[in-house]
Amino acid sequence: MKAKYLKEFFTFPDILIMSILFLISLSFTISEWYVLETWLALVAGMIGYAASEYLIHRFLFHLKPPRNPFFLHLLKRLHYDHHADPNNLHLLFLPVWYSMPLIAGTGGICYLLTSDVIMTNAFVTGVIGFLLFYEWTHYIAHRPVQPISPWGRWMKKLHLWHHFKNEHYWYGVTSPVFDVMLGTYKNEQDVEKSSTVRDLERRWDKDVEL
């Protein structure tokens, strides 16, 4: 792994901000390492983000284009434009204006359910930690970098199929578990090339061949 890619990743503003928040949250979580509930909440946060990674990607980021210009603009920034220009670094990462409200919202729900600040912080630590893992995996998939592990190389291949073969499959970025469970994992050779894989806005046009 070349140092320039590590620098490029961790100095990108959105990643830098989330990394700082993660370290702050982690410092409080570590101080309560001896409490079982801390670890349970941490794992719950990681699992929760892993599930949202797939569900948001499939059901929100691939929505039919909204008629409202403002919401269409948001969706284009969050995902449509990324499919149009997959290797554009400025379209690669989730913006903090999207991530922060989601983290705050899920953290608030956790506190309402537990009334426990320590568990809530551990949950948020798990969420942000998995978010950074997702961002790194996604970053590596789109940069001229060969992942070190066989798992990483496989996930990079699946993600590039999603971008360059067919946008209806392989939504998972860090794992294919939910693709397998929900029927969106296919053998690449059994899937036809999509005419809208680089233009999600045209998926619902009547003149597009399915």
Automatic annotation (TrEMBL):
Its cofactor is Zn(2+). The chain crosses the membrane at residues 12-30, 36-56, 91-114, 120-137. Pfam families: FA_hydroxylase. GO terms for biological process: fatty acid biosynthetic process. It is a multi-pass membrane protein. Residues 43-184 form the Fatty acid hydroxylase domain. The keyword Transit peptide does not apply. Keywords: Endoplasmic reticulum, Fatty acid biosynthesis, Fatty acid metabolism, Lipid biosynthesis, Lipid metabolism, Membrane, Metal-binding, Oxidoreductase, Transmembrane, Transmembrane helix, Zinc. One of its GO terms (cellular component) is membrane. It is found in: Endoplasmic reticulum membrane. This is Fatty acid hydroxylase. It comes from Brevibacillus fortis. The lineage of its organism: Bacteria, Bacillati, Bacillota, Bacilli, Bacillales.
